[in-house]
Write a structure and sequence with these properties.
The protein is α/β, with parallel strands linked by helices and 399 residues long. It is built from ten helices and 19 strands. The strands form five sheets. Strands 4, 5, 6, 9, 16, 17, 18 and 19 form an eight-stranded mixed beta sheet that branches. Helix 2 (48-69) packs parallel to helix 4. The two termini are 21 Å apart.
Length: 399
């Protein structure tokens, strides 16, 4: 069973607090816009698609409670005021993580839904709230379906709750096309060691953790023996030319993959593709607090009588790992140039480059052509994630 990061029923939203993983599995209830904003900003929830879904459903849950209690708070007098209130709430949540394009895409689509209802002659505030709730709930269903399809597209391509890059790994593993995953720790926030590792263990997928700086050595020393053939990453925003913003360290993995002759693949739903952004030069990169680099958080460990170390019960602690008075630079993302990317896997197929090296998006944005996936050499398969790297059955690397 895939780990459930979001629990939703009409009027109630809970998220798996990813800051508490992998040592505690705790769900936090989102009761207000402020709760949602904080959860997204503090990275209690991660991943561009999940961020968008949490933002959309937080407003849906509030709206459902307003309808249930028949006492909208704050009071809404007209359909237009209801639509304006929802649009304002979406814009507020958009300020939490500006790099992730899925959030902006969801805000645009949902704002259009409520605006259309508000402009109807017989539109009411209740109709606006109901239309918003239904649209946000459809996004949740479609997000799960899209991510599952992304994984299945990879099986078609490489024979090689679901996740994008990790969804690829799940699909490869379930089809017995993948023997092992190498995944990186993903400093400074350690999403790889904390979250990717937790999910791989949860799903019983054989995997090995490496530090970010070990990727080159792994490719060089174990590339042939472990049949590592590709690196698979997710994305927070893909520009029209294919430049991709993803977790810091992705760019370095792309360079290493090219040098070692490995395929470098991006797994992302179409909502992550921002055709209004021409290139990576136009993507704003979020910079986070330097304390995330200078400090690290986790439970304490202690050696037993035989010298083996184990986790001590109790809450986590934060410790400083840098020299006193150190300063740190902490960009949350980097931009991988399109020329380093071999393919972009979407729910509607795999986008590849033409003879001129330009990504062709027409197919994946044409719903009538979702099954036409190019074939690849089955003998080579896939192999590394930037929260991870994957090995016949091929080995994959994941990040």
């Amino acid at each position: 069973m895939v780990l459930q990061a979001i629990k939703y029923s009409r009027g109630k939203l809970e998220i798996l607090d990813q800051l508490r993983l992998p040592h505690e599995e705790v769900y936090n209830e989102i009761n207000s816009l402020e709760d949602a904003w904080t959860a997204i900003k503090s990275m209690q929830v991660r991943g561009a698609p999940a961020i968008a879904i949490v933002a959309a459903l937080s407003i849906a849950a509030i709206a459902a409670r307003q309808l249930r209690d028949k006492e909208p708070i704050p009071p809404v007098a007209s359909a237009k005021q209801a639509a304006q209130q929802i649009t304002s709430s979406l814009h507020y949540l958009l300020t939490s993580r500006p790099t992730a394009v899925n959030l902006a895409d969801a805000a645009t689509k949902l704002s259009a839904v409520v605006k259309a209802i508000a402009e109807q002659l017989d539109g009411t505030s209740i109709a606006v709230l109901e239309a918003y709730i239904e649209a946000a709930e459809r996004m949740l269903v479609e997000d799960v379906q899209d991510n599952e399809r992304i994984g299945h597209k990879v099986i078609s391509l490489a024979t090689a709750g679901y996740g994008t890059a990790l969804g690829v790994i799940r699909s490869l593993h379930s089809s017995h096309s993948l023997r092992h995953v190498y995944y990186t720790e993903t400093r400074p926030y350690n999403q790889g060691s904390r979250l990717t590792g937790y999910e791989l263990i949860h799903d019983d997928i054989p995997a090995t953790l490496i530090t970010d700086s070990m990727a080159a050595a792994l490719m060089r020393t174990k590339g042939q023996s472990e049949n590592i053939t590709a690196v698979i990453v997710g994305a927070d925003r893909v520009a029209a030319n294919g430049d991709t913003a993803n977790k810091i360290g992705t760019y370095a993995l792309a360079i290493l993959a090219q040098h070692h002759g490995l395929k470098f693949l991006v797994a992302a739903p179409r909502t992550t593709v921002d055709m209004a952004t021409k290139s990576g030069a136009d993507i704003v990169i979020e910079e986070r607090p330097q304390t995330e680099v200078l400090n690290i958080k986790g439970p304490a460990v202690q050696a037993n009588a035989s010298g083996e170390k184990g986790i001590i019960g109790g809450s986590s602690m934060e410790v400083c790992i840098a020299a006193r008075n150190s300063h740190a630079w902490n960009p949350a993302f980097d931009i991988t140039p399109a020329e380093l990317i071999d393919g972009i896997i979407t729910e509607n197929g795999v986008v590849e480059k033409d003879a001129q090296g330009v990504f062709q998006w027409n197919k994946v944005f044409d719903a009538s052509d979702v099954d036409d996936v190019p074939e690849v050499d089955e003998a080579k398969g896939l192999g590394m994630l930037p929260d991870g790297i994957t090995p016949a059955e091929p080995t994959a690397a994941a990040s």
